[in-house]
Amino acid sequence: MATKALRFLKVSQVQRLHARFVVPNAVPVQPSMLEFVVHSPMNMKYYAKEEDVFRLAANLAEKIMKNHAVQDGNKRTALLAADMFLKINGYFLQKVPFAEDINNKGLADAHVAVVKNQWTAEQLRNYYRSVAARLVLETAEVMQYRSSAIEY
User: Fold this and answer.
1) Burial of 140: CB neighbours in 10 Å, binned 0-12, 13-18, 19+
2) Domain spans of the chain?
3) pLDDT tens for residues 77-108?
């Protein structure tokens, strides 16, 4: 059975998202942990044959939040990374990162629930699936991330 090709973020792309939206000029406090975290969805695809982009996005977000690879802003970085992962694979969670709207409030609450162990990654996956929309028009930023992502 042939597997579906997906695109996966690189460590440098997650760092760029973190630096752009969370902490300018930040570097990970645990670079090897960030590398492990970013490769986790790819490992899920390879070893578990997982192709559900929402499960892979939730895995990425959970690992970023719980492994604290960056000093500050792990939940925000997790949301940015999950959203961009979904965007480069045809979906989106946020129209505008961290906009003051009901959708982003729900996403923030979902991430807090995961960090507090009130939700599992599977529950986060279900939530992502319920709020995500198909990406109809790619922005220049999404096209840039997509073109330099790892296709696997």
Assistant:
1) exposed
2) 7-143
3) 999 999 999 999 999 999 899 999 999 999 99
pTM above 0.85, yes or no: yes
| 101: amino acid identity, one letter | D
Distance CA 6, CA 151 (A): 6
pLDDT in tens, 95-143: 899 999 999 999 999 999 999 999 999 999 999 999 999 999 999 999 9
CATH of domain 7-143: 1.20.120.1870
